[in-house]
## 1
Amino acid sequence: MKKIILTMLVSSTIASFGQQSNGLIYPKTDKIPHTDNYFGVDVDDPYRWLEDDKSAETGAWVKTENKVTFDYLSKIPFRNAIKERMEKLWNYEKISAPFKEGDFTYYYKNNGLQNQSILYRKDASGKEEIFLDPNTFSKDATTSLDAVSFSKDGSMVAYSISEAGSDWRKVIFIDAKTKQNIDQNLIDVKFSGLSWKGNEGIFYSSYEKPKGSELSAKTDEHKLYFHKLGTNQSADVVVFGDKEKRRYVGGSVSEDNQYLFISAANSTSGNELYIKDLTKTNSDIITISKGFENDVDVIDNIGSKLYIVTNLGAPNKRIVTVDASNPSAENWKDLIPETENVLFPSTGAGFIFANYMKDAVSVVKQFDYNGKLIREINLPGIGTASGFGGKMKDKELYFSFTNYTTPGTTYRFTPMEGNSTVYVQPKVDFKSDDYVSKQVFYTSKDGTKVPMIITHKKGIILDGKNPTILYGYGGFNVSLTPSFSIANAVWLEMGGIYVVANLRGGGEYGKKWHDAGTKMQKQNVFDDFIAAAEYLIAQKYTSSDFLAIKGGSNGGLLVGATMTQRPDLMKVALPAVGVMDMLRYHTFTAGAGWAYDYGTANDSKEMFECLKGYSPVQNVKSGVKYPATLVTTGDHDDRVVPAHSFKFAAELQDKQSGENPVLIRIETNAGHGAGKPVSKTIEEAADLQAFTLYNMGFKTLPNKQ
């Protein structure tokens, strides 16, 4: 339904400079005529050339934009003070929950400001040694450790690494005891788990390497492979996805090594589920669940009895059982029925832990494998509990607890007795007792009640002058639950208010809440966010002069849509790695898989009009005073390609009529966010806060006034 009408390829002179705003001179970004036609409607796309991440012109544009941005940031008088405080606060020892593999106990540790956390281990005598140190993988620490998978007996390890933040992975095999390589590396692995079949080899997933740019070209057909140790990757067998065309395929082997479970999907919501008996040679792949309307996953098995979590017939999820010999849905039996709260289960030590989300906070109940309630677990407070996972034979498990004012603390839990004790409590230079988090429920445009948590220093004055960051996401069934952040702690220390709105499109209230923010209902998400801002202003927490909105990825879209619809509502906008061109998102990398949430411009005229109606790139208007905007992205982001942010920034710089700066900060050798070195994370967070306060009119830090 789309045809290209005109493409004019001319050389770009992006090194020249153009529009001036408040003494700020923006780079002049060339407009190269290009028009697409959707259902008889012409849509101009003059910055299409910025989609070519391999071109010299795009590279020059990135350098020029960064120079302007960093020159601006360097002149903010308190920028370094924020960075220094953030470094000081960040500099505390972080230790993960331990896990046992073979003869060793493993755990991650960061001494404070190490760019990447190190995987350590201890032997039976308690002797500690470094097992994997990602800080040594590259000179600038931009190569990070991703998945680590041990064979069932713990003797061999497969681990994946990400270079420069890319979603493409390299897999390395080593002997657990000697740490020596035992096989050739696998390359070009993407969106993959690493699941061992005995000591033979691993199941992994990937796409064919695309033609053109590996960072932006479309990847559409995912396959599940089996790699046998000692063989070439070219000989790896396709287990699933050869005949069946799916965008996302994953495989995991049961703890008892009996079954391979295969999940196949065409979008980020809804999946098929299959099972293969690994104890029988050339066994068939049997269907457990067909179609893409529901989420289905095996959480454990005891012999042939499968334990499945699903939202089929249960929008908030339930756990069912079925025999592997005849696993289709008509044979499922409820074990833990659906409740009014959304279920996120885990298993360990012979128990099922039902982690329920009640108004975005955790309630955890422990069940046996017959579905009998053992106890509700007493949590340290109101917040987010995660963990409670482990092997069947484990005698103790671990969980972490956090909220907006409490750094994540790890607890040791004994399932038989139900007792919890502190395992690791971080020593953070932050006085949690000086702050308060309060949950409120506000009313959106259509009357829907939406939860929101507001965090600030105790005793603040509600005079409308408090610098406030409003954060949201609102998509892909993602739930924003309370968690501690060093960057946010620094913001709170400076007298700032930090607010998180649990918008429709998320998973806080199950499938219905998610679906209410998808496709033709996507405007609900933006309305929820706007209503959150209006509530904060009406209650005098802040005002439009002291409000910043922030979000990343789908949350970047949220910020982009909100600031173009209501530019008067906020002083500062901080869209990070955002999906900004809604007419073209599905043409890049794995973007087509997001269609469950968004729909595509090719689906129908109505869907096209809906997307065009809120797409940030297409809704920047001349003559509008937009808020001070700092767009952030990474030049190696192959999840949401940086072209989204490039084009949005170019439109803003071309059309901004007010005095507020509109800048883009492009991190080099960085992707969508995963594995970003601590030093880069701190620098970016400090820049965002400095930019925000400076554009709210602060000449010194708020807590110094």
## 2
Amino acid sequence: MFTKILIANRGEIACRVIKSARKMGIATVAVYSDADADSLHVTMADEAIYLGPSPSRESYLLGDKVIAAAKRTGAQAIHPGYGFLSENADFCRKCAAENIVFIGPPVDAIEAMGSKSAAKTIMEKARVPLVPGYHGEDQNPAIIKKAADDMGYPVLLKAAAGGGGKGMRQVWSAEEFDEGLAAAKREAMSSFNDDIMLVEKYLTQPRHVEIQVFCDNHDNAVYLFERDCSVQRRHQKVIEEAPAFGMNEELRQQMGEAAIKAAKAIGYQGAGTVEFLLDVDGSFYFMEMNTRLQVEHPVTEMITGQDLVEWQLRVAFGETLPKAQHELAIKGHAFEARIYAEDANNDFLPATGVLEYLKVPEQSENVRVDTGVRQGDEVSVFYDPMIAKLIVWDENRDKALKRLTKALSEYRINGVTTNIDFLYNLATCEPFVKEEIDTGFIEKHQNKIFHDNLQTVTEELPMAALAIVLKAQQEASQKSENSNDPHSPWFSTSAWRLNEAHVQHLVLAHNGIEHKLSVEQKRDENRSYYHITVESDELATKTIDCQGELTGDVLSCTLDGYRTKATLCQNDNELCLYRAKGAFRFNRIMPDLGNADDSDAHGGLVAPMNGTMVSVLVNAGDSVEENQALVIMEAMKMEHTIRAPSKGVINDVFFNEGDMVDGGAELLAFIAEES
């Protein structure tokens, strides 16, 4: 077995590989950029080599530097993780030339699957079912558009060299085609330095089901069953599960054997994933093969009891597969939820910042957290915004789902906007629980996931107000106990006034809509209770009799005789209640005490995030139409287009292509046309 390996990656996957290597007694070498100098994977590894500046093209994507690091440290093999160099055939070839083992498939297999169009041709010859589409070499936009027109809309544009949702666009009509193609090609060139495109018929209700395959160099091949990855945003997976729901043994075997057929068609070795679209009628179609370990591999590990990284290391060393097909079995059910630094309420824009407070759920044989960050680390603009993967297991889907929601409600992150409450809402959403899932799930059930129906917050508004009051009382009590004057009126939170009611006034915002609440404290003998009145313009005015207590982060309360509980997560003026029916986030709007600085106010268009200016599509003096694309920004491998809010004129442009831009910075001076 190898005595030392280098991990050509960062973050969560680097830490994951180090754990398996350490268990096997293999020393590890990390590589790092400026941004990662003090990161967790560097700390965990036995040795570490500096690669260069923070941008990945100046560090992690420099194959020659990675190989030099391996040679310098005496590493016999390189594990590429996923992303970066993991599917780079040239890098694999250079490793072989230096007598360094690439822990992955052979060069020919990477090249065969590196082009989606070439892969389709190979799979067609191997008689693996394919989605109708155009995979030709002629990249004339008119040819591609004609193919789209002929097969009928909607269609899916995909970068031939793509992966991870990059260089992909859904196009719903001929009118949208040109802009969609230009955006997909631009993103593909930025991500892969290759803008060759293919176009496929877009199935409207498909599921994304993938098969984990493993092959050694002794002509053995197995499939470790399937994963359902249908729940996606921006063509990127959000929650994965294994096994796939509604899968009978016959279909499982058919898809597994098709996946092995696909792997053998290219002489595959190592860990690979064959991705299929599963239609409502049970037919399935080859999408692509990822010639690497997948982000979601832990759910397969949880249901099979196998360490797939250990399998990778053993196969790369020349050993046979640890298990034969008949020795593999499915046990229980597992989910993986990807914890991202992103604002789900703002089109999933990536977020940056410092993880000021980080508390993960208690880990056990049922709950696993794969991460590459610690409290105090910075989520930077340079890399993928994933913070961690939360993986849970139980004996069936229902029990595993309950574990997932409980663990999500216990996850605590302050300092960076995350998608935790979004994930909780998704996992508790009735259609998700009932397995009514396809790749359009999030768009289809947006109202349920984001609680856009205000009637759904009629209970949560008084609960949030009660939580704020009880929390303030706790904090005041603690300060009083530590004070030389514990009876000082400055520690009172009752809003008491001589000959007046004990009333506090709060303003809470949910999904951007503000609600006024008054909280009147009452006493009945030795019992305190509250009358909470919701005075919202959007909801009927209602007064609710409330009692409650706050124990740790659990709010127990009675609302007009109805007893209920919620887990509370509070960060400054932001409060989230986790309930069985979902997570409800409120922002407390504080009164304006005259300290607001209006100097930053302007009528221009601002950057929604920290990022890089990819394209400036207009000039000063240009007249623009409503919804016209003006500039394109990129952050954390994601593009975001800023569009004209109305018809108008561009008065000035403040940034050029390639400029780094801070979130909130004014990008353009825009003058709206008077109606």
